[in-house]
Design brief:
The complex is a heterodimer of chains A (about 140) and B (about 60). With about 140 residues, chain A is mainly α. Chain A is about 60% helix and about 5% strand. Chain A has one domain (about 10-130). Chain B is mostly helical and about 60 residues long. Chain B has two helices and no strands. The chains are: A mainly alpha (about 140), B mainly alpha (about 60).
Chain lengths: ~140, ~60
């Protein structure tokens, strides 16, 4: 039977870790000492967000024109620092006149939603509602 | 950076399947098995749907 352990509940640390994890993918797990998960999530979200921006994907802004733009903004804002640095990572901006830019838009939105899932896991771990197995399997 | 549809899909499948494996499994052996299975399933389903749509593309 697999060994599992529950973390002691520390709501303040859980909330701080959740905000940190949203802002910098993986940082929330670092604060909770989940090193392997932190590296994997930083790699996954960072790769998707960077490739999406380099492919000149569109980044939705907060002044959405319709409900779909608002959904796009909610997904994109999940990227945290990658959203705020989008103009620096790809100064040329979005270009969805080509298929490549359209794929980039999807990759960037996927990265944001994936990071939001990671933030939810940080909250689960921090509040002690998720059992964590030992790293060695 | 210009990637074609297949290359973008491979990057998507790889990163998402690895992240999902770490989100849903605790043991490393289970994570590896889940990531490999999800990666191959992403590719198989996408290529399968692509071939299903092929007769309607012309």
């Amino acid at each position: 039977m697999a060994e599992t352990k529950r973390n002691p509940i520390n709501p303040a640390l859980a909330l701080v870790a959740a905000v940190a994890g949203w802002l910098v993918p993986g940082l929330g797990h670092v604060l909770l000492r989940k090193w392997d998960k932190a590296i994997v999530y930083l790699f996954a979200v960072g790769t998707l967000a960077s490739v999406g921006l380099w492919m000149r994907g569109n980044v939705f802004s907060s002044n959405a024109a319709d409900a779909f733009d608002m959904l796009g903004f909610l997904a994109d804002i999940g990227n945290g620092i990658f959203y705020f640095l989008a103009g620096t990572i790809n100064a040329a901006g979005g270009d969805v006149s080509r298929a490549s830019g359209d794929y980039g838009t999807r990759l960037f939105a996927t990265a944001g939603v994936l990071n939001l899932l990671c933030v939810l896991e940080v909250l689960q771990i921090g509040f002690g509602s998720k059992e964590e197995g030992h790293a060695a399997g | 950076m210009i990637l074609n549809h297949f290359q973008a899909m491979v990057i998507f499948a790889l990163t998402v399947s690895v992240a999902f494996a770490f989100l849903s499994k605790n043991k490393m052996s289970e994570r590896l098995r889940y990531a490999a299975w999800a990666f191959l399933a992403f590719l198989a389903v996408a290529i399968g749907i692509g071939w299903l749509m092929y007769p309607f593309s012309r």
